[in-house]
Design goal:
Number of strands: 21
Keywords: NAD, Oxidoreductase
Shape: globular
Strand order of the largest sheet: 1-6-5-4-7-8-19
Number of domains: 3
Pfam families: Aldedh (PF00171)
Protein name: Aldehyde dehydrogenase
GO molecular function: aldehyde dehydrogenase (NAD+) activity
Number of helices: 19
Distance between the termini: 68 Å
Catalytic activity: an aldehyde + NAD(+) + H2O = a carboxylate + NADH + 2 H(+)
Helix content: 40-55%
């Protein structure tokens, strides 16, 4: 078995695929045994304690940074092969963001690892206490296809910084990037503690049958439920980065051109809408909608030309299954007549033009399912305040956006709308701020990461209390007299006067 990357080869793929849903006991399989062997081997190397050292963690973070520096063009080429992702989007939104995460971890790691002093009380006097971060152990990272480089390695930064051994399972839907990750991680990282497993449902199923110390999954809610169910069998904690219908509320007192460009940047400039925090739909007033639509059309024409299907600045739909899913959303009877811009598609090239729809029914598929593609419905209301009820009537989104100059509206938006993250007067940029936690709430995810939050996500905060042999109090030992009970009650919950009264026998038991 390779020390750098593992390619598990499985038989009976359809049986393993069904195993996710079938709880009927089955005899041990070769696939499960091989995955079990991998975890056992990593537990053995983790037990050596080497990952706990500052030096090892720094060396691996530097190796990861070098991996990104040395192979920028290879990564961009793989992303283009998998998604037709424009070079700029690959370099800025995947490679540069990863490098920034690495640099932040390298800069702050010593501080993150330092135990945090904690206050003690008179109950334990004399004593001192601290909170010591320690690695969880052997963790599994299952990444997504839409940002297959960033979403594979960014969580690993936190896992390494926290001192864990890691297994990465890249998405098979982005095969070129998956293969490149297996190769590069094998070449640059310490294979005794960091492995890559390539494959599809069968391999993921076999990995999920193992006991991990944490599972980090990025993807959709359907698979998120499968991951959580598998983790529950071993009481394994999970961090789930899912998605949802991220709304954009647009007020009328704004710089319309800037707002429109920023909406487009978050929607179509982010993998052509195939991003978990892309704007999913817009809410604006009936009176303002015509101006917003005209502005969107104008800017889309400027960015992508008269024939956006030929634009090299738009990613394609990832595969035929997702193309069919998006086509179904557009072709629904009560939706197809609502297209006011775009709608062109080329199935042979898996391309769909940026598409705007106006006043689609709220019970249509496009408004009840996460779109995850280049389609953008606009919902109109009489008063913008109605938008908050619309947003909160659905599942909690991963992100929510507001464009306004109205201070009271901003305050109400922040107080009223529950989402993984909020951005006012822009879209998606909170992802790049590593001092903010990035994660979902409710059906959009469990837990958060980025920066220090990544370190915390893969750490156990161990409580440590230090005492000396001085100050041993007889009051805690039998025989339990009324005087001892009174004093202990005062020590546990009373103030200074209560303690003095108890010492002089004046308190009531």
């Amino acid at each position: 078995m390779s020390k750098s990357s593992i390619h598990l080869k499985f038989r009976n793929t359809h049986q393993i695929s069904a195993r996710i849903h079938d709880t009927t006991p089955k005899p041990p399989s070769y696939e499960k045994e091989e995955a079990s062997l991998l975890v056992k081997e990593l537990r053995g190397t983790f037990a050596s304690g080497r990952t706990r050292s500052y030096e090892w963690r720094i060396s691996q973070l530097k190796a990861l940074l070098k991996l990104a520096d040395d192979n920028e063009q290879q990564v961009a080429d793989a992303l283009n092969s998998d998604l037709s992702k424009p070079q700029l989007e690959s370099i800025v939104y995947e490679i540069a963001l990863l490098k920034n995460s690495c640099k932040a971890a390298l800069k702050e790691l010593k501080h993150w690892m330092t135990p945090e002093k904690a206050k003690t009380s008179i109950t334990t006097f004399p004593s001192s206490a601290e909170i010591v971060p320690e690695p969880l152990g052997v963790v599994l990272v299952i990444s997504a296809w839409n940002y297959p480089f960033l979403l594979s390695l960014d969580p690993i930064i936190g896992a390494i910084a926290a001192g864990n051994a890691v297994v990465l399972k890249p998405s098979e839907i982005a095969p070129a990037t998956s293969s490149l990750l297996a190769k590069l991680v094998g070449e640059y990282m310490d294979g005794s503690f960091i492995r890559v497993v390539e494959g599809a449902v069968a391999e993921t199923s076999a990995l999920l049958e193992q006991k991990w110390d944490k599972i980090f999954y990025t993807g959709n809610g359907r698979v998120g439920r499968i991951v959580m169910a598998a983790a529950a069998k071993h009481l394994t904690p999970v961090l789930l980065e899912l998605g949802g219908k991220s709304p954009v509320v647009v007020d009328s007192d704004i710089n319309l051109q800037v707002a429109t460009r920023r909406i487009i940047a978050g929607k179509w400039c982010c993998n052509n809408g195939q991003a978990c925090i892309s704007p999913d739909y817009i809410i604006t007033t009936k009176a303002y909608a015509p101006k917003l639509v005209d502005a969107l059309k104008n800017e889309l024409g400027t960015f992508y030309g008269k024939n956006p299907l030929e634009s090299k600045d738009l990613s394609r739909v990832v595969n035929s299954n997702h193309f069919a899913r998006l086509t179904k959303l557009l072709d629904e009877d009560k939706v197809s007549g609502k297209i006011i811009h775009g709608g062109e598609r080329d199935e042979s090239k898996l391309r769909i033009a940026p598409t705007i729809l106006l006043d689609v029914p709220r019970d249509s598929l496009i408004m009840t399912e996460e779109i995850f593609g280049p389609l953008l419905p606009i919902i109109t209301v009489e008063k913008l305040e109605e938008s908050f009820d619309i947003i909160n009537s659905g599942t909690k989104p991963l992100a929510a956006y507001l464009f306004t100059n109205n201070k009271k509206l901003k305050e109400r938006f922040v107080m009223s709308v529950t989402a993984g993250g909020l951005v006012v007067n822009d879209t998606t940029l909170h992802l790049a701020v590593d001092t903010l936690p990035f994660g979902g709430v409710g059906e959009s995810g469990v837990g958060a990461y980025h920066g220090k939050f990544s370190f915390d996500a893969f750490s156990h905060k161990k409580a440590v209390l230090y005492r000396s042999f001085i100050g041993d109090a007889a009051v805690r030992y039998p025989p339990y007299t009324n005087g001892k009970v009174g004093l202990l009650k005062a020590l546990m919950g009373g103030g200074v006067l209560d303690i003095i009264r108890a010492l002089f026998g004046l308190s009531k038991v």
